[in-house]
Amino acid sequence: MNRRFLFLLLLLPFAGFGKPVVTNEKQFITFEDSLKKVGPTMFMGTDQDKIAANKKFTDLFRKALSIEGAFDYPFDSLKFLANLSSPDKAIRIFNWDIPRNDGSYVYYGFLVVDESKNATKKKTDKNKITIYDLTDKSDEIKNPELSILSPDKWYGALYYKIILTNDKDKKYYTLLGWDGNTNQTWKKIIDVISFGKDGKPIFGEKRLFVRGKRSSNRVIFEFRAELVMALRYEDDKKRIVFDHLAPEVGGAEGMYQFYSQTFVYDCFNWKKGKWMIEEDIDARNNKTKKDNEYINPQGDQNPGGNTAGNGNKDPNGPPPGAKKKHHLFKRRNH
């Protein structure tokens, strides 16, 4: 089984779309049928085979997204990719991961922007949809927690949640994501999309994450593979809750393959336009039965994670990853 599909299916219940009037529906159905045939081939064969299939899929999907009405079309039968809509319905993110044969992952996707809801754009841009290719350059980015990035220089991850916050009439879209990284470690990512004066999207425009005297543009947690690390948004308390990680053995600081939970929770609270750290919180009452609803799919050659797929899944940890093999998604409730 493929770890990716399980994780993506998890997100299906959270696509969050009603039933808007969609023009060109027959065209979309035809494209969707073709995408469903091409999509699974991105996860099979050699790395070269996957790259070729991914290009075919990406080109076809871009054409589908360029059709009038695409922003409102659900694309909910594409269960092998993450399909997220922001709370204000101003942006959509479609993204997926390709497992390499060495156990690492590379990420692809599209950021689709409804310019009529982009406050930085002129009125003449009303009704215009802009499609940005997300190009994973994470292997080339030095000091990623402090870097200002763009769609064509993106710290790739598989997203499962979009959180909308505001500060002085500026919108910030905070993203929670998962990265399979290697056979030894996985990562969880908190990133932020905002829009510049030219209307173009920026990843990590400001140092919004404050931890004591330190601040950063994004947050990256790294820990031993197959660990179910909590990273979830609690809407009632407007906070991002996460496991406090530490080495399992003495002397292993910085050796992330030994990092695990400490059964202590920290969180980020949105205050005065920044995500401010609060340590050692009581998160017990916020846990539900759904927190442990993760299955490690069988047959994956690399550890997966709990992340992606039509909607926002992964309240806690790794995408229903894998038992040391690539990952498939299984439908679950958040």
Name the overall outline: globular
**What radius of gyration results from the CA coordinates?**
19 Å
Largest beta-sheet characterization: 6 strands, mixed
Enumerate the spans where pLDDT stays under 50 for 5 or more consecutive residues.
1-19, 289-312, 317-334
- Residues in β-strands, percent: 25-35%
Give the total of beta strands.
16
Helix content: 10-25%
The overall average pLDDT, rounded, is 83
Strand order of the largest sheet: 10-9-15-14-13-12
> What letter string, H or E per element, gives the SSE order?
HHHEEEEEEEEEEEEEEEE
Supply the number of helical segments. Answer: 3
End-to-end distance: 22 Å
How many domain units? 1
Describe what this molecule looks like in 3D.
The protein is mostly beta strands and 334 residues long. Helices cover 13% and strands 34% of the residues. A hairpin with a 2-residue loop joins strand 5 and strand 6. The radius of gyration is 19 Å and the shape is globular.
